[in-house]
Please model this.
Amino acid sequence: MDAGWTSAIMDTAAAARAFVAAHPSAAAGYAAAAFCVVFTAASLGTFFVPWLLSFFCGVQDLKVKYGAEWAIVTGGTSGIGKAIARRLASQGLNVVIAAYDDKLMEESREAFPAEFPGCQFRFVPVDLSTADEQRYLTPLAAATSDIVVQVVFSNAGYIRTGLFDGSPLDVQLRNLRCNATSSAAVAHLFLRRMRRSGHKGCVVFTSSPANLTPCPLSAMYGATKSFLTELAVSVAPEVVEFGIDVAVLVSTATHGAAPCLLPPSPRAGPAAASPVPLRPLRLANARSTRPPLTRTSSTRPTLSGPCSSSSPRPRALTSSPSPPSASSAAASSWTRATTAP
Model:
């Protein structure tokens, strides 16, 4: 830097010190305004810059990016999880689907191999809401012991509406464990495997815009989505140097069919040669689909409907049957529940 620039900087600094000494309140105001401008620009930049880059860089082929052969999707028999599993298969990835053992699991066992004959599928029935994590980690570890899973979508979760203290504690804790605890446990299992084997890969958590706002009458749902978002952004810098990407998917309502996030690949067989047609996912806004409040003999407001406190188990909210508002497509709130009866 030449003498002219050095002199100019010193003169500017001296003028700034003089201004602060003469007008301390105004200087503090200018400093606060400058901080707000910089902070806002940085916050918006981290959102809009990646969004703009996606238009120029295109969608990512995860099979090619990580040299992967296998992926796993929890809650992959319906809703967003099923859409993710189909997109991964359309790229030629073999997919492990972990979800509750019910009719949707039986349907998926037949539908996925028929739609993607060039891919392999493994179906692992698990209860992700149990208090004993080994009851789902052990079968998941056994089902994937002979393969390398490099793409992990920890997606399973559900929303339960009602007053926080209006349902038994176990009901709330099952929601917590399915949405949050199981996601952390599954991610931990496969992150450790990738670290030890030296493979690149990614772990993606399904969150929701509910993590950004208070969620009365669905308090546990909003809290678990905030947990997943914080976990993802905190773990990401820990493993990025090993070639492992950690991301959080914050889905929002869309109109019509769900967008194609991942490009199809002809390697997956004839069914993947064209974009996969998806049924529209249903609107996931809990506030617009909540049953009406009624007054009971205890003079305490409770929720009526299938998700009331008298329900023997959390209601599994999926893309079918459709909720009352069927004009929009859904995000993670209607993700398939993987809870026990």
Remarks:
- The beta strands are 70-74, 94-99, 121-125, 149-154, 201-207, 244-250, 293-295, 301-303.
- The radius of gyration is 24 Å.
- The chain has eight helices and eight strands.
